[in-house]
Amino acid sequence: MANAAPAVTAVEMGARQREISVSEFFTKNRHLLGFDNPRKALLTCVKEAVDNALDASEEAGILPDILVKLEVVPEGNATSSASQATRFRITVTDNGPGIVKQQIPRIFAKLLYGSKFHRLRMSRGQQGIGISAAGMYGQLTTGKPVKIISRTSARTAAHYFEVQIDTKKNEPRILESKQGEWAQPRGTQVTLEVEGRYQKGRASVDEYLEQTIIANPHVQLTYVTPEEETKIYSRTHTELPPQPKEIKPHPYGIEFGMFLKMLHDTKSHSLVGFLASDFCRVSPAVAQEMCKAAKLLPAVRPHALHGHPAEMLYKTIQTTKIMAPPTNCLAPIGEQAILSGLYQQIKGEFYTAVSRPPAVYRGNPFIIEAGLAYGNRPEGGTAEPKPAAQPLAEGEVRQEDEDSELARVIRYANRVPLLYQQSACSTFKAVLDTKWKNYGIAQSRGALPSGPMVIFVHMASVWVPFTSESKEAIADYDEIRKEITLALRECGRRLGIFLRRRERAEGEYRRRNIFELYIEEVAEACNRLKDGKLKVEKLKAQLQKIAKSRTGGQKTDETLGKAGSGPEGLPHSIIVTPEGVEGEGAVGARVPVPTKPAPGAQAELFEEKSGRGQPEKKSAKTPAIAQAKKRKK
Amino acid sequence: MAKAKTNGAVAKKLIGLADVVIDAANRSKDPTLAIPIRALSNVSFNPRKGLIELGAKKQARAFFNVGMAKKFMQTILVADALSELQRSDLTTSLREIYYRTKHTIKDSHENTFDTQDESDPVIEDLEVSLAALREELHVRAENGGSVVGPLVLEDDGDRVDCAKLGKGGYSVPSIVEPGYVDIRRCTADFVLLVEKGTQWNRLSEDKFWKRYNCVLLTGNGQPPRGVRRLARRLHEEYTLPVYVLVDNDPWGYYIYSVVKQGSINLAFESQRMAIPKAKFVGLSSADPERYGLPRNVGIKLNEKDVTRAKELLNYEWFKKPAWQTEIKRMISSGLKYELDALANKDFQYLTKKYLPKKLTEKDWLD
Predict the structure, then answer these.
(1) Backbone phi, then psi, for B175, in 5-degree steps?
(2) Alpha carbon of B280 to those of B193, B273, B352: distances in Å?
(3) Which pLDDT tens digits describe chain B residue by residue (366 residues)?
(4) Which sign, positive or negative, has the C-alpha torsion B265, B269, B271, B276?
(5) Which one of A526, A549, A556 would you mutate to disrupt binding with B, by most B Cβ within 10 Å of its Cβ?
(6) CA proximity to A55, closest of A212, A235, A268
(7) Residues from chain B contacting residue A515 (CB–CB below 8 Å)
(8) Counts for chain B of helices (H) and strands (E), in that order
(9) Cβ of B105 and A520 within 8 Å?
(10) φ/ψ of residue A365, rounded to 5
(11) What is the pTM of this model?
C-alpha cells in the first residue's frame, strides 16, 4: 500500500460520477442499433425511415406509396461511383398522414421518443429509437442535420425542418424551420446524409426492399438506386392490412418490476379495480379471486402495496388461470397476400403459405406465418429446349441441372425483413429442425435443406422478442419455435405432396418411355438371334401393347390435377407449369399463358380426353408437364 | 487359333431366349427369364461329395418391371452377342463382349451398358441359366497363371514341355479343356498350387519341382478358371494329389476353399473345377511358432480381416474341428503372415526347409 499511487478518495471519485445521457451512450455503442459498419449503417438508415413511413401510412388507413432514393454525395470535386462512394444522401418520401409541426423535431432528434413503446399494438417500430438514431448516426459521421418536409393535408402548408440531436441532453436542436410549398398534398419526406457503403447482394438495401415487398404486397414502392436506376415495385394487393387494435398487458407477460410500476402509476383506487382495468382478460370476478388467493383485501389501495405482499400477489396472478390475450391486436399478412408477394418476387414452380392460429408467449399474443417458393421457373414461362446431349463415355456422368444450392430463409418480424444474424434467429433454428427429408427435400445434418427453395417466416406480435436492439433476430422462446415449426411442417407437407405427385407422374411417364426404348433393343436383338427371320414390327407392337397395359398407360397422364379444391388439392398454393398458373386465381391471371398446343402424341391424348368431357384446362396441362420433365432428363 | 469347340446345343439355347420373348409376346404375357440365384443363400455344401452346390432358387427377370427392364434388355443383347460368337466360331473376352454390346439406345441418352460391371454378371447369369460353361459360350477369362514341371501339353498343335520353359514357365490359358489344351504326358508326383507369383518364382528359380518332382502352379492370387481346371485335370486324369500354399490370412483360407470345394459365385462350376481332396499345406496359423517366425514379421489383422475370418468360421465347409482351431488361432493371435515372411530366416527357407519339412511330416490340413 505504501508504494502505491496516491489513492483516490471517495470524494474525488464522487466528483467524477455524472449522468450518462441515452444519446451519449448510443454514440459510443452504435453497433447495438445496427450501425456497426458503413454498409449495415446505410441499410439501417433506409430501414428505419421506410418502417416509419409504412407504420404511419397504415395507421392512417392510407395505402402506402413510398419513394426511396439513394444518392452518392460527391466528396470534394470528384464524384465517385456507387460502389466506391462513402457518403450517401437517403431520401424517403411517403404519402402518409404527415406529422404535426410541434412533434417533428422530437420524433427525428430525440432518442426514445415515440408513440409505439407505451402501447401493446403490432407495429414495425417498437421503441422509438430508430429514426432518431439514424439521424444521430448521420450527424456523427457527416455533421449534416436531418431534413424533414411534412404536410398533413392539401389545405395546410408544408413544414420544413433541419434538426440535430443535442447528444448530452437528448433534446432536438432546430437548425432551420420554415413553412412552404411542397409538390405533395400530404406525406412526409426525410433526408439523411450518412457515411455508408453501397454493395449489392446479401443484406443489401436492394435485398431489404425486395423482401419488404414480398411481405407487404399492398405497398407501392419506387426505388432509385445510387446507380440512378429506377425500380418500381407495383402494388399487387390492394387491401390494406386490418388495423391492429391496441391491447392492455396480459398478466402473464408482465415482469415483477413492471408490475410494481403499474401498481404505482395506476389511476385506480382499489386493487380489484387496478387488476380489472389495467390488464386484459381480467374480469372483476377474476380480480376478486386473485386478491383472495393472495390474501389481500380487494379494496386496498394499489399505491400502498409494496414488498412482500406485492410479490405474493404477483406470484398468485401467475398461477391463476386467465384467458389468453385477445388477438385482434395482430394483423397477419394473410395467406393470399404472402402467396401474392412470393409469386411476384420469386421465380418458382410451387408456392404455398400457412397462417397459424394465434398463440401466446409470456402473455404476448403472436401469429406465425410461413411460406414456401420452390423450383426453378424458366424465364418467360416456357422451358427452352436443351441442346442434344452427346453419348456418355464410361465414367462420365451427365450433368443434372439440379444444383446443390441451399434453401434461402427470409425472415420477418411485423412485416419487416430481418437481414442479419440469421443463425441466432428462432426462425432459422426451426428451419434447421424441420425434417425436410420427410418432404422429399435433401438436407445434410445440421444444415439448411438444399434445393431451389425460398422459405418465408413471419412473426406478427405486439412485442417481438428480439435478441438485440438492432432487431435482427427473434429470440428463441419455446412457444415461438413450436409455432414456427408447425407452420413449416404444414408448408413442407404440401410441398412433399406436390413433389411426390410430380415424381410419380414423371416416373410413370419414364417407365413407359424406357419400355418403348428397350422394346426396340430387345426386338432387334431377338431378330438377330433368329437370323433376321423375325417379323420385328409385329413383335414390337405386341410388346408395346403389353407395356401399355402393364403401366397404366394413359391413366398416368391423368393422375395429376384431379382432386381437391386448391391446385391439385393443396390449399393456399400456387403451381406454375409451362402451360400456366394454377391456384389463387387473382394472382394467376397476371401471367402470360403460352397458347402453343403440345405437339404430337400429347396432342392426341388431349383430344381423347376432351372427348370424354374432362375439364379442358387440366387435361391440356398434364401432358406438357411430362414433356417438360422429359426435356429436363 | 484353336478351333472353338462348336456346340450346337449352346447355340440353340441362346436362340431359345428369343423364343421366350416371342412366345410371351404372342400370348400377351410379360417375357420372363428364370435365373438361378448366385449367392450364399442359394448354395449348399455337399459333405459327401465335398462340393459347394448351387441350389434350386431362381429369380424371375421380367421385362415389364421397372427395376428389371434394363437387365432384361441387357441379357438379350448379351445373348445376341454370344450367339454371334457361336455362328462365327470365335472366342472372345468379357471386355470385348462389353464393347460389342455397348451402344446408345436410339432416341435417348442412355447407354445399353455403362460399365463392364454391368455386362459381366449378365454373362455369368447366362452361364448358369443355360447350364453352359464359359468356354462353351466361347468366352475367355484373362490368362492369369503359370505352370512349370514335368508336364507336356499340346496347345494349338504346338508341343509345350513345361520342364523346358526356363523359370518363366507356361502361361495357363483360360480354357484348358481337351481340344483346346491336351495333356500329353505327366510324370510328376504331385501338384503344388501357390497363391503368390513371387513365391512361385522363388520355387521355380530354385528348381523345387525338379528335386521334388512336382508340377508348380500359380494363379497370382485367386486362381482363375484355367489354373483351377488344369489342377483338377491333373488330379483327375493323373491322380496327382494337390497341395495348396497360401498366405496365412482369411483370404488365403478362402482361396484354398475355392480350389477345394468351389466358390459361391460359381457354384454351378464346382462339379468340374473343385478338387475335394486338395490339402492345405500352409501357411498355417501354427507355423509361426513351429518354424520360429518372429512376431515382428507378422501383420496386425485389420477389422476387415477379422470380420472375414468370422464369416469363414460359419461356412459349412470350414466346420471341421481342425479348421475351427486353425482360424480361431489366427484371430486370437491377432496377426497374419505372408509367405514372403519366411525370407526373414533365409532367402531359400521356403524351398529348402519349410516345404520339405511340411511334405515329409505330412503336416497339412484337409
Answers:
(1) -110, 115
(2) 10, 17, 19
(3) 344 445 588 889 999 999 999 999 999 888 999 998 888 888 888 888 888 888 888 889 998 887 888 899 999 999 999 999 999 888 888 889 999 999 888 777 778 888 888 998 999 889 888 888 887 888 887 667 899 999 999 988 899 999 999 888 999 988 888 888 999 999 999 999 999 889 999 999 999 999 999 999 998 888 888 899 999 999 999 999 999 999 999 999 999 999 998 888 778 888 888 999 999 998 999 999 888 888 889 999 999 999 999 999 998 889 999 999 999 999 999 999 999 999 988 888 999 889 999 989 988 888
(4) negative
(5) A526
(6) A212
(7) 63-64, 69
(8) 14, 17
(9) yes
(10) -75, 145
(11) 0.59
Here the cell at position A155 is 389545405
In angstroms, rounded to a whole number, what is the distance separating the alpha carbons of residues A50 and A237?
Answer: 19
Q: How far is CA B222 from CA A565, B95, B197, B282, B338, in A?
A: 65, 19, 11, 16, 15
Joined together, the cell numbers standing for residue B164 give 523346358
Which residues 42-71 of B are in CB contact (within 8 Å) with A?
Answer: 63-64, 66, 69-70
Q: Would you state the cell numbers that stand for residue A325, as one nine-digit string? A: 390475450
Cβ pair A517:B105 closer than 8 A = yes
First to last CA, chain A: 84
Greatest Cα-to-Cα distance within chain B, rounded to the nearest angstrom: 73
A511/chain B closest Cα distance in angstroms:
6
Strands (E), chain B: 32-36, 43-46, 51-54, 58-62, 92-93, 139-140, 145-148, 151-155, 158-161, 170-172, 181-186, 190-194, 214-218, 242-245, 279-282, 299-300, 335-336
From CA B149, how far away is CA A284, in angstroms rounded? 113
Continuous segment of H or E residues that includes residue A371: strand A364-374
C-alpha cell at A232: 418500381
DSSP label at A157? P
Angstrom distance (rounded) from CA A98 to CA A57? 9
Cβ(A130)–Cβ(A466) under 8 Å?
no
Comparison of pLDDT for A611 and A314, the residue scoring more = A314
At what angle are helices A307-319 and A284-293 packed, to 10 degrees? 120
To the query of whether residue B256 is one of the catalytic residues in this protein, the response is no
ipTM of the complex in this document = 0.77
Q: Which residue has the higher pLDDT, B182 or A385?
A: B182
**Could you tell me if B80 and A528 are in contact, meaning their C-beta atoms sit under 8 angstroms apart?**
yes
Taking Cα atoms as reference points, which of A36, A68, A407 lies closest to residue A208? Answer: A68
The b/e string for B261-280 (b: 16+ C-beta within 10 A; e otherwise) is bbbbebbbbbeebbbbebbb
Residue type for position B129 = S
**AA identity, residue A442:** A
Give me the phi and psi of A143, to 5 degrees please. Answer: 80, 0
Residue A482 in grid coordinates: 413450436
Which chain B residues are closer than 8 Å to A536 by Cβ?
A: none
CB contact under 8 A, A530 and B76: no
Question: Which chain A residues contact residue B83 at CB under 8 A?
Answer: 528-529
**Identity of the residue in A392, A511, A551 whose CB atom sits nearest the CB atom of B111:** A392
d(CA A467, CA A22): 20
B88 in contact with A at a CB cutoff of 8 Å? no
The answer to whether the CB of A416 falls within 8 A of the CB of A471 is yes
* Nearest alpha carbon to residue A401 among A383, A413, A415: A383
Closest by Cα among A365, A372, A590 to A497: A372
N-terminal to C-terminal alpha carbon distance within chain B: 40
Other Cβ atoms closer than 10 A to A8: 11
Are A17 and A24 spatial neighbours (Cβ–Cβ below 8 Å)? no
Inter-chain CB proximity A529 and B17 less than 8 Å: yes
**How many other β-carbons are positioned within 10 Å of the β-carbon of residue B140?**
18
